[in-house]
Amino acid sequence: MAHLGMVLQTGPYTYENADTVVKLADTALAEGHEVSIFLYIDGVIAANKNIDTPDERNLNQLLQALADKGAAIAACGACSKFRGITDEAFADDIEMGSIVDFADMLMEVDAVINFAM
């Protein structure tokens, strides 16, 4: 099976990129593929559990569900810090990472899809 990497750079409630990442990752996991997701720039906001969101589109919970299914999810620590997000604001299985973790992900995956503006 393939190892799919995704980079989410856009905010969760400005574009539908976060929703696409969640649906694509869920489908890939269901088909037996490995999935790694790196939250970068405003993409880190999707993992913030302190945002008051509608239940049907709570991206933090949707990302946690992906992690529960085996997706590796990391958020850029500098991007998070600059947006006032601490690692306590993330779901349990979402790691505060660095650009080094991003580079490691790029080395491990078979394909990368970048979700930007």
UniProtKB/TrEMBL annotation:
Pfam family, one: DsrE
Secretion signal span: none
Entry's Gene Ontology cellular component terms: cytosol
Highest taxon listed in the record's lineage: Bacteria
InterPro entries in alphabetical order: DsrEFH-like, Sulphur_relay_DsrE/F-like
Listed name of the protein: DsrE family protein
Source organism (scientific name): Metallumcola ferriviriculae
